[in-house]
Write a structure and sequence with these properties.
The complex is a heterotrimer of chains A (about 100), B (about 700) and C (about 475).
Chain A (H helix, E strand, L loop, with lengths): L3 H21 L3 H26 L5 H31 L13
Chain B lengths: L2 H11 L2 H12 L5 H29 L1 H6 L2 E10 L2 E9 L1 H24 L6 H20 L3 H19 L6 H32 L4 H5 L2 H9 L9 H16 L8 H4 L5 H10 L1 H11 L1 H5 L9 H22 L4 H22 L2 H28 L12 H4 L1 H15 L6 H16 L1 H26 L6 H4 L6 H16 L12 H5 L3 H7 L5 H4 L8 H23 L10 H6 L1 H7 L4 H56 L2 H20 L4 H22 L1
Antiparallel strand pairs in B: 1-2
Chain C lengths: L10 H4 L1 H19 L8 H18 L16 H21 L9 H19 L3 H19 L6 H32 L4 H8 L4 H19 L7 H8 L2 H25 L5 H23 L5 H22 L2 H32 L10 H4 L1 H14 L6 H15 L3 H26 L14 H19 L2 H11 L4
Helix pairs in contact in C: 2-3, 2-5, 3-4, 4-5, 4-11, 4-14, 4-19, 4-20, 5-6, 5-11, 6-7, 6-11, 7-8, 7-9, 7-10, 9-11, 10-11, 10-13, 11-13, 11-14, 12-13, 12-18, 13-14, 13-17, 13-18, 14-16, 14-17, 14-19, 14-20, 16-18, 16-19, 17-19
Classes of the chains: A mainly alpha (about 100), B mainly alpha (about 700), C mainly alpha (about 475).
Chain lengths: ~100, ~700, ~475
């Protein structure tokens, strides 16, 4: 079986990729996708830990399922907000969404 | 119901009527001026009556009996931890005497305000505020624990802010209000720290539980505090004293009091002479057993040493400034600072009763002087510059004679005035206990007499030097009446504290009532305090010489040949630049502005700019550069490997860099925020890796 | 979530307020369909009245002390204190929303408010990492919608987007931390995690802690997770700003206090040191930045950051008194901040501006409003005898008891700085004249209730703190 560490490294890498997208992409939708990647990294963690430490209890799986559900809700609301800002300003570039500052 | 129970109820009720008056005026009667002042004065009179009943009854019991069984009522109020912090009232001899003078001066000032504030557009509001103020002072007086004292103390601070800035159309008044509030607040918060520290050590803030319990006091005196070399008692004492420095305007927090003269004159009399500034001294007098615990012989504890130094210095220092002031109220303001400093210095050397005595007499004669100056201001059509006055003696006879009495009391004119007895007692103790303090205070006394005479001469003698003084008139009876009453106290109150050993008079009166009554407040401690064993004529002679010498000197300079209109102050001619320095109050305001206020404003701005632009942008720059390098590498590969167009590619890179930089300089972007969160997180993690 | 899951009907009592909130939300959404457009404003009354009932039920209904649903939730007394606090905030915000002109008065708005409250109530009683996460997300996602609710308003939309991105990011980081804690300990119940964490390697536990702290920090708006605060406070509809500033912050503190007490006691000294530092920095930065603001909502945003710093003093004290003080201060802060925002709502309705300058001459336009604002600012600034003073006093007392003298000194200095900008507003309200000062400010009935209640509470809690503090103090006993 593949050692647990490998999964954790994969998860950490995925988390960092997501993080980079969140910090570097200018498009709000891309940022949202970055956040999704971070959440997926969490899911890999959860499932790996579950499989390797507590295969008999369903806690890890349940946790991951909740994360999926919540992530879907978050994306829905996020997209709605992006649409509303696009209607106002005709842009989804977060660099230009900076009226509120200081 | 026994008499004691009746008194307990009365004591609880004392602060209440003015508070109700405040509430009713603010909520319902704002429009009706006459009704407002009737309610305010009626409420104050009620408080006055109750305070006097309590006072005269407990006098019958005598000091020791009252010390043994003080009037005390407690209700649990704020449970904190397992101990219940109860709120309550307590009347011991010190409270009784304070209630006596506070209620008299407050009532006099309330009545006087009817005349002074006549025609003011915010007449009702004024009475509401001073009613709230009276609540604060009366509540503070009867409070039986430090927390309650502090709350009422802050209520007075709030009123002071509202009243100094009462004529807020004047920018100077508004500035003075802010200055007063913030300056005293500095002292207050340090004091709050002291209270918190005391509470953390003893688990109680009740006066009775701390000050009357030998074991608790001893425990505090031997426990070392967080500051090395100081016991808990000393540390708490110093912190509490900081509150007094702020409230009673001692150096270096004295700057607010003279500016506070921007408020209406009754406010100056009430807040800045008779009551609020007295509260500062009252608090240290009240806490004296704690401040003095650990005292051995005549060697003071650290808080006492601090008080002796700050007190004697301020007494002299403020007196020198007063000499060169031309505004009638400012002279009085500095004299207040100076006189309060006498009390602080007296406590510092252990002259407990003398300090309390001066507190009472000072309240009477300083209220008298302030109200007198207010009468002058009203009579002379709102002229405050003494250089524009003169010749008011004939035009305002009642004001003149009462002011003269007040001035003589302030100077310590021998035998006849109350100020003499209290000041002489301080000096007698100082002579015995600390010669340095004695000479500084004596020099201060000389200056006090001098500037008082200068003020009287400039204001009342000679011929009018200004238009307003020319047409001055006596003020109505509501204003002169309180003056006369206060003048009586300024003359005769001193006789309750004539030392038994004093030649002739001492034997005649035979009993130093004040000493026995108020001294009983500290119980056994009184007998351990050092003091002159027997009557000593030397300090008495020096004090008489200082008072009379100062008055004579003032008369010679200003009275013998009164100033003509347009003539400069002879003192300015003789002292030259020194006078300029004094007139500008040693430039301390400017110094504070330069040393504290400007740098603070600058620092706040700089931190703001640095943090928001410098630091964050700097780091973002760094990161952008990293991205840029990556981007360059990326594009390098792109241009050479894929496009092969070198020139075109580098132009793109430059353009991209410029855009990136501009983007980096903008804020209000959510990604910058996220980046900062990440950086902080990494910094925390790094810290843990490094240190744990 | 143990091995055998036997359902016990008594568990429902534990989450009775949550169930009622859900029913209330459905009722409000249903009523919304039935009401004609011009009468939809009454939805605020429905919501507020319903919330009052839920509040009463949550206070009076008997609740089993032990954990319910296999350890997912535990409605212990302190959790119930927090729940009551959120519900009270909800009542006031619902009433306040009725008078905010730009807001569409419709079902989804009040529905979202209720869902967010539902999330908060669950946060207060959650005792399991999964429950905690779901409750926090329910709170946050509803709040994103509320912040961006003025779709046509570009500020509101921007604030919503920023809030959502910041929130989603921090919750992702927190979730990663939660997954590490789960991996380290193999459990999700607080007690299981705490027990296993004692054996776990320190550095990994600390990483998990720090990542979780990011999520909590976002909710309570502490440095360095405070960056969203000014932007979102300014852009959001004012009642929503009030809601986020009080209920959401209090919910953050509720989970933070519980997590620190029950998950991380083994990290003991380390997190205390960290919280002391964060508390000091939070109040200082908040106050310094607040001084420079021209927009009152932005100023109140920085002020709320500073207030979070004060409350963190109680968190750092980590004693029973500290925790009780933090909870008690949050109650005071709830009524105080709502009073401040209620005046902002009414003034901005009339002037169309949220600049501090637009409050000029307010004392002549409406005494009631001017005094409402003043009481709130004095209470925030810790002027006795108002509630904020007692709150700060107990917080400081808690810190002194735990030996954090330095933190108290910093706190006290901060209180002085804060007075400067609070008094500046006082100056504008009372001293500055304006051309429209003859025109009185109309105060609609719901706002009258909100302001009357909060003003009374500010004074009463200041003068007679005992009954409420007693209640909180007794509740905190269950944790020790």
């Amino acid at each position: 079986m593949v050692p647990l560490q490998w999964y954790l490294v994969l998860s950490a890498a995925l988390f960092c990729v997501g993080l980079y997208a969140v910090l570097a992409r200018r498009n709000a939708i891309s940022i949202l996708m970055g956040i999704e990647l971070m959440l997926n990294a969490v899911n890999i963690n959860l499932l790996a830990f579950w499989r390797y430490t507590q295969p008999e209890a369903a806690v890890g799986q349940a946790f991951a399922a909740f994360v999926y559900a919540v992530a879907a809700a978050e994306v829905a609301v996020g997209l709605a907000l992006i649409v509303s800002i696009y209607r106002n300003r005709e842009t989804v570039d977060v660099d230009e969404i900076n009226l509120l500052k200081w | 119901m026994t008499i004691r129970q009746l008194l307990e109820i009365l004591t609880v009720l004392i602060p209440l009527p003015p508070f109700l008056a405040f509430a009713f005026i603010v909520l319902f009667f704002n429009r009706w001026k006459r009704l407002s002042h009737s309610i305010a004065i009626g409420a104050m009179a009620l408080s006055f009556l109750m305070a006097q009943i309590v006072f005269w009854t407990v006098i019958g019991w005598g000091g020791e009996a009252l010390y043994e069984h003080p009037i005390a009522v407690q209700v649990p109020w704020l449970p904190s931890g397992d101990e219940v912090l109860s709120m309550g009232v307590m009347v011991d001899p010190l409270t009784a005497i304070t209630l006596f003078f506070v209620s008299i001066t407050c009532l006099a000032i309330f009545i006087y305000s009817v005349g002074y504030m006549h025609g003011d557009p915010r007449y009702s509001r004024f009475f509401a505020y001073i009613s709230l103020f009276a609540t604060g002072m009366l509540g503070l007086t009867v409070a039986d624990n430090l927390l309650m004292l502090f709350i009422f103390w802050e209520i007075m601070g709030l009123c002071s802010y509202l009243l100094i800035g009462f004529w807020f159309e004047k920018p100077s008044a508004y500035r003075a209000a802010i200055k007063a509030f913030l300056t005293t607040r500095i002292g207050d918060v340090i004091m709050l720290l002291g209270i918190a520290y005391l509470y953390s050590q003893t688990g109680t803030l009740s006066f009775a539980a701390i000050l009357r319990d030998e074991a608790v006091l001893h425990e505090l005196a031997v426990t070392p505090s967080v500051i090395s070399g100081l016991s808990v008692a000393a540390a708490v004492g110093l912190l509490l004293f900081a509150g007094t420095v702020g409230k009673s305007a001692q150096f270096p927090l004295h700057v607010w009091l003279p500016d506070a003269m921007e408020g209406p004159t009754p406010v100056s009399a009430m807040i800045h002479a008779a009551t609020m500034v007295s509260a500062g001294v009252y608090m240290v007098v009240r806490m004296f057993p704690l401040l003095a615990v650990g005292m051995e012989g005549a060697v003071g504890t650290p808080p006492m040493v601090a008080m002796a130094i700050i007190g004697s210095f301020t007494a002299f220092f403020a007196a020198t400034i007063a000499v060169a002031q031309d505004d009638i109220k400012r002279v009085l303001a500095y004299s207040t600072i100076s006189q309060l400093a006498y009390m602080v210095a007296a406590l510092g050397i252990g002259a407990y009763v003398a300090a309390a005595f001066h507190l009472v007499t000072h309240a009477f004669f300083k209220a008298l002087l302030f109200l007198g100056s207010g009468s002058v201001i009203i009579g002379a059509h709102h002229e405050q510059d003494m250089m524009e006055m003169g010749g008011l003696r004939k035009r305002m006879p009642v004001t003149f004679w009462t002011f003269l009495i007040g001035g003589f009391a302030l100077s310590g004119f021998p035998i006849l005035t109350a100020g003499f007895w209290s000041k002489d007692e301080i000096l007698a103790y100082a002579w015995h206990l600390n010669p340095v303090v004695f000479w500084v205070l004596a020099a201060g006394a000389l200056l006090t007499a001098f500037y008082t005479m200068r003020q009287i001469c400039l204001t009342f003698l000679g011929e009018p030097r200004g238009e307003h003084a020319e047409h001055a008139h006596e003020t109505p009876w509501v204003m002169t009446g309180p003056l006369v009453v206060l003048a009586l106290f300024a003359l005769f109150f001193g006789f309750v504290g004539v030392p038994e050993e004093f030649p002739v008079l001492g034997e005649l009166i035979g009993y130093n009532w004040f000493h026995h009554f108020v001294g009983a407040t500290v119980g056994e401690l009184l007998h351990h305090l050092p003091g002159p064993e027997s009557f000593n004529p030397v300090p008495l002679a020096i004090s008489v010489v200082a008072a009379l010498g100062g008055l004579t000197l003032g008369w010679l300079v200003y009275g013998r040949r009164p100033l003509k209109a347009g003539e400069t102050d002879p003192l300015a001619r003789w002292l030259g630049p020194v006078h300029t320095v004094l007139k500008n109050k040693y430039y301390i305001d400017e110094l504070y502005h330069f040393v504290f206020i400007r740098p603070t404003v600058w620092l706040a701005g700089a931190v703001f700019r640095w943090f928001d632009r410098g630091l964050i942008d700097g780091i973002l720059h760094g990161i952008a550069r990293l991205g840029e390098i990556l981007g360059i590498a990326n594009r390098w590969v792109h241009t050479y490997v894929i496009d092969g167009g070198v020139v075109d590619g580098s132009a793109k890179v430059v353009g991209a860099t410029g855009r990136e930089l501009r983007q980096v300089l903008q804020t209000g972007q959510v990604q910058h925020y996220l980046l900062q969160v990440l950086m902080f997180l990494c910094a925390f993690a790094l810290l843990y890796i490094l240190f744990f | 979530m143990g091995g055998e899951t036997v359902f016990n009907a008594i568990w429902l009592l534990t989450i009775l307020p949550e169930l009622l909130l859900l029913i209330l939300a459905l009722i409000v959404l249903g009523v919304d369909l039935a009401l004609p457009a011009e009468r939809k404003r009454s939805l605020g009354v429905w919501t507020a009245a319903g919330l009052v009932i839920v509040l009463l039920v949550s206070l009076l209904a008997p609740v089993p002390e032990e954990a319910a649903f296999g350890g997912l939730v535990r409605a212990d007394p302190l959790g119930r204190v927090f729940r009551a606090m959120f519900l009270l905030g909800g009542v006031l915000v619902a009433l306040m929303s009725m008078d905010f002109r730009p807001l569409r008065q419709d079902g989804p708005y009040y529905g979202m408010l209720l869902f967010s409250l539902l999330g908060m109530c669950l946060m207060a009683v959650a005792e399991n990492l999964v429950m905690l996460y779901v409750a926090m997300e329910l709170t946050s996602i509803s709040a994103y919608v509320l912040v961006g609710y003025l779709r046509e308003d570009t500020f509101s939309a921007e604030a919503g987007l920023k809030y959502m991105l910041f929130g989603a990011f921090t919750s992702a980081v927190m979730l990663y931390g939660l997954s590490l804690l789960f991996g380290l300990t193999g459990g999700t119940g607080y007690m299981e995690v705490a027990a296993a964490l004692r054996e776990a390697p320190f550095s990994l536990a600390m990483v998990g802690f720090l990542m979780v702290l990011v999520g909590f920090g976002f909710k309570v708006a502490m440095v360095p997770m405070h960056f969203w605060t000014p932007d979102v406070y300014q852009g959001a509809p004012t009642p929503v700003t009030a809601f986020i500033s009080v209920a959401s912050k209090a919910a953050g503190f509720a989970v933070m206090l519980r997590a620190f007490r029950f998950i991380f006691p083994s990290l003991g000294g380390e997190w205390v040191a960290l919280m002391v530092a964060i508390s000091a920095v939070t109040m200082t930065l908040g106050n310094i930045f607040a001084v420079w603001q021209k927009n009152i909502k932005r100023m109140l945003a920085y002020s709320s950051v500073a207030q979070a710093g004060y409350i963190l003093i109680g968190v750092a004290a980590a004693s029973r008194l500290g925790i009780a003080a933090a909870a008690f201060y949050l109650i005071i802060y709830t009524v105080t901040n709502i009073a401040a925002f209620a005046t902002v709502v009414l003034v901005s309705n009339l002037t169309g501006s949220e600049d501090i300058e637009s409050f000029a001459g307010l004392s002549r336009r409406s005494k009631f409003l001017a005094w409402g604002l003043m009481l709130a600012l004095f209470s925030l600034g810790g002027v006795p005898p108002f509630a904020g003073f007692i709150g700060k006093l107990i917080l400081f007392a808690g810190a002194v008891q735990s030996g954090l003298i330095a933190l108290v000194v910093i706190g006290v200095l901060n209180v002085i700085v804060s007075l400067y900008y609070y008094l500046n507003v006082a100056k504008v309200v009372f001293e500055r004249r304006s051309e429209e000062e003859e025109e009185p400010v109309p105060i609609p009935v719901p706002s009258r209730w909100v302001l009357g209640f909060t003003m009374a509470a500010i004074v009463i809690l200041g003068v007679l703190a005992a009954p409420v503090f007693n209640w909180v103090w007794r509740a905190s006993g269950a944790w020790f």
